[in-house]
């Protein structure tokens, strides 16, 4: 196929996705996701916003130094300090890109930037030239392009391309566009801008009206050849266009769209589960492509049709995105080699032999409690093991909960607090409430509980429970995760994990302007 028929996949899970309240990730977590994206053969990984915080800078830098097969990108406002910081973070990248942006809609220019259109064009040109002096690959975005005037977009984009931008992004920043209108706008820009042939046109659609994927595909039909998206559609507000939906729509409807991507689709499910586990944002069962029910058939008519000929009710195979109909189920008699092999098949990479031994030991403990260990159990087990490698201010030692009819539930627990064992007892309106109150009596965090979510990791009554706890304090939001056969223990682990993140983390600063 011609390179003109290839759609470049630009993943911004680590930047825009992280701007979801509670989705902040550690450097190590970002590296794990970046490596999963590289295995997925994502073309461009937007690793972060280097100037936003020291943590973001270090994450971008670490990813730039580790990833070899994908381009690593850093976002930067159209100001020298941002661009210089991005270039510094990308200095050792095998392939780096600076992504600079400025708002172009009348409402943003007037009320946010307080600049005249001429000033905006001048600053955009200056920023692109500055970025090109530091990096050969420069992308320029017109923030809030979806509400910008087409004449002004033509003017500023032509100037940005002349200044050296080789990718032009037309974001629907607030999710305002409608597919046919958005596609027409992309078509107009490509037709009217004299030097449009010197750049790849990109789109970045938000999902406020549930149209992010539809708008992105309309833009591809109109000639856009880069789509900016995230795993599971993660992102602030209603999220972004979901990578898995964009990629599989292009693959499944090649007859209509006539384009392709380089994505290695069998790795989609593993990436989805990794992002969900790290961020604590569960995937809804009916989510397209990666939801638990995406390939499930309950209707007798559907079941009969699929058994006779899969294509009667399935437009793609489950295996094509990473689902396996014949899973290797591990148990307590499984050996180290089977364990290692299954981790490799799932795309889980451990740092060294010591990490494998530690994970295998945890697997054996779990296998003594649970007869069959499924892929989802392994994902949770490894994620929990890697979380515990980080320094812990609080650590659960033991938990006892008493709950009976007609009496308030009571929780008694032992915690290590900064290495010293402490105990607490508390009553609550329910067993989980009692556990959280007992933990708080020792932690005294005064954080607000914003979310408590429980999901069964696998089917069956012996499934591990996966708990997400979201805490907020002074405007900072963190998600804590915990998994265990005992849902009460999982709840305690999740709350303690959130407290440790609150205790150790550096507050992240995502300027409002970063909402590309």
Automatic annotation (TrEMBL):
Q: Where does Mn(2+) bind?
A: 16, 204, 206, 240
Quote the EC number: 2.3.3.13
> What keywords would UniProt list here?
Acyltransferase, Amino-acid biosynthesis, Branched-chain amino acid biosynthesis, Cytoplasm, Leucine biosynthesis, Manganese, Metal-binding, Transferase
Domain Pyruvate carboxyltransferase: from-to ranges: 7-269
Q: Which GO terms describe its molecular function?
A: 2-isopropylmalate synthase activity
**Which intervals of the chain are annotated as region Regulatory domain?**
395-516
Q: In which pathway does it act?
A: Amino-acid biosynthesis; L-leucine biosynthesis; L-leucine from 3-methyl-2-oxobutanoate: step 1/4
Q: Which reaction does it catalyse?
A: 3-methyl-2-oxobutanoate + acetyl-CoA + H2O = (2S)-2-isopropylmalate + CoA + H(+)
Cofactor(s) annotated in UniProt: Mn(2+)
Quaternary structure (record) = Homodimer.
What family is this protein classified in?
Belongs to the alpha-IPM synthase/homocitrate synthase family. LeuA type 1 subfamily.
Q: What does this protein do?
A: Catalyzes the condensation of the acetyl group of acetyl-CoA with 3-methyl-2-oxobutanoate (2-ketoisovalerate) to form 3-carboxy-3-hydroxy-4-methylpentanoate (2-isopropylmalate).
Name of the protein: 2-isopropylmalate synthase
The organism of origin for this protein: Azorhizophilus paspali (Azotobacter paspali)
Phylogenetic classification of the source organism: Bacteria, Pseudomonadati, Pseudomonadota, Gammaproteobacteria, Pseudomonadales
The coding gene here is: leuA
